[in-house]
Amino acid sequence: MPLRTSSRWIAPLAGLLVLSGSAIAVRAEPLPAPPLTQTSQKPAYTVPARRPAHIVRQDTGASLSALFDSASGNQAKVLNEMDNLQILMNNDIAEAVEAYYAQPKAKLIWVDGKGPTPKAAQALSLLKQADDWGLNAGDYAVAPPQGSDRARALAEFEVSLSAKMLMFLQDNFRGRIDPNKLSNYYDFKRKPVDLKATIAQLSATPDLMVVFDRLLPSNPKFAQLAAELHYLRTSGQGGDSAANINKVIVAMEEMRWLPQEFPERYVFINQPAYMAYYYENSTLTLSMKAVIGQQDHQTNFFDASIKTVEFNPDWGVPQSIIRNEMLPHLKRDPAYLDKEGYVVSVKGKTMPSAKVDWSQPLENIGVVQPPGADNALGQLKILFPNSHDIYMHDTPARGKFASQDRMFSHGCVRLENPKAMAAAVLKTSVEFVDQQIADGAKKDMPVPEEVPVYVSYFTAWPTDDGVIHYFDDIYGRDAETLTAISATTASRAQS
């Protein structure tokens, strides 16, 4: 089914979203969603630990009674009221807040001893716009100072706003949730935020946008998604807008798991789109269909670096495939693997499959498919070392690329045009690639420079011309992410 597109102009988001020139975004309607395969119950997402911040003010040696009538005395009152506050926050944020306000020369950031400052007003305005960035503004709400004890009320406001600003900035930079806690299909080294340095910067800078801009994803695609989210929420148009809003929110969360900026040269694989892309000088120069993992052999979501192209590869059959797919054939015909051209070895000794005792531990047995026209990996594979043993490769099963839903592999990514991708990462020509394949010999060739690869999962994704495409949540991962986001928000609502 072809994707339908339409054009529209998008206004900047509350004065914060700045796109180059006039902001244009185009929609592509989602394809009908097939029923999802039911999977076993997964454990609930574990939210970060929260605790009250314990601010222990260090004695400065000053006589506070002599300062009560001065501005510095008012600030000292506020600072000293922090000792008895019980404000819940994530443990890492609590540590940064405690360290900052415990300093003998700590300065108030958001109040001046009499009330909130213009800087506090800027911070509150920024937090209220969190929804524009795919976050939940309720997570960062701060109540105004209230109560008869003015110093205590200001102390509570000061600490609360610092904690919420740190949370807001950290969420923008790396996302609200830790994807590695969702399931084993996610593998990211979570981006660190130096919270102690950040609160010091919040204190020192007169303009908070300097800090915000440093931590907001600067990839243009993130801005396109933000513009799309604004449009969907304000227009009420575009098919199933509620479902699409969720897809955009998840996409913006996922973008925060990736580098703040993509490099000039990289490979991007989007599993729900069943597509692979190659970028050179930040420009899309190559795209092709891809086959990804079956429901019970899902392709992981991670990033790595392409290091090697292997020509005429052999295929070491994983033990899971031996156990689940080959043993049933061998029970019917012990010579099955011999007839199919596989090489079998037991503890390193080659022997016919018909003579192997298949009841022994499979760890003793190796099954290899030699290079050749029927090899499952085709004529080449592109390697980017990772703990999931996932790579891109050719395939003799060319007919699979004609399918609309291309979930046929055991987790690796099959490419429609692997020679072109190999030529791109090797910085050479397809003719050169053909020459390497022609002699039939297995050989490894390192790429001249490592190429980042993002094996990703986006059900909403903007193409380079501004078109927003929507795809089916084929593995049900968006639903898991939204559940984790909801659990995070519920945790943050506790006081």
UniProtKB/TrEMBL annotation:
This is Murein L,D-transpeptidase YcbB/YkuD. Pathway: Cell wall biogenesis; peptidoglycan biosynthesis. InterPro entries: LD-transpeptidase_YkuD-like, LD_TPept_cat_dom, LD_TPept_scaffold_dom, Transpep_catalytic_dom. Residues 265-433 form the L,D-TPase catalytic domain. Keywords: Cell shape, Cell wall biogenesis/degradation, Peptidoglycan synthesis, Signal, Transferase. Belongs to the YkuD family. The active site is at H393, C412. Residues 1-25 form the signal peptide. It holds the Pfam family YkuD.
